[in-house]
């Protein structure tokens, strides 16, 4: 029996680092963002259907994210139309990932996990978190990031406290060592002899 664990967390909470710790421990990780990138790349399954609806979004045989953003800013229906194309393709990619694995634990790195209702098909959810001051320090240290951009991104994400209250598991990512230990403990809890 494979346990499907969803991993999420707001910007600057350490989600990507935590996902890598699962990979380092030998746990397969499906990355929603990477799936979309592959669909948008030249030869990707989303290129032709998006090009049919928004020809200006295609550049050098791939979906241009900047061009798509420009279209979305001027067309209020564009995001819904793109999501109707992309969501089934992402779901198919995720299903293929699950079908190809026999591991006891699979992790799904999904930025908008609760916002998109993914907890419905997962066995459990993990939220990574840090106090707001550490989150702000991490995000504002990123090249080119401004307070205004950070505030805008945060306004689109479910509040951290709500994510934590809805999660089955919460890991605080203050230090790499503590986070790695928490990941190891969770892997043992979910795949140990009790779950065989």
From TrEMBL:
GO MF annotations, alphabetized: dephospho-CoA kinase activity
Catalytic activity: 3'-dephospho-CoA + ATP = ADP + CoA + H(+)
The protein's Enzyme Commission number: 2.7.1.24
Main location: cytoplasm
Keywords of the record: ATP-binding, Coenzyme A biosynthesis, Cytoplasm, Kinase, Nucleotide-binding, Transferase
Reported function: Catalyzes the phosphorylation of the 3'-hydroxyl group of dephosphocoenzyme A to form coenzyme A.
Top-level taxon in the UniProt lineage: Bacteria
Family: Belongs to the CoaE family.
Protein name as it appears in the record: Dephospho-CoA kinase
SUPFAM superfamilies noted in UniProt: P-loop containing nucleoside triphosphate hydrolases (SSF52540)
Enzyme class: transferase
Pathway: Cofactor biosynthesis; coenzyme A biosynthesis; CoA from (R)-pantothenate: step 5/5
Residues bound to ATP: 12-17
InterPro entries cross-referenced by the UniProt entry: Depp_CoAkinase, P-loop_NTPase
Gene that this polypeptide is encoded by: coaE
Localization, UniProt: Cytoplasm
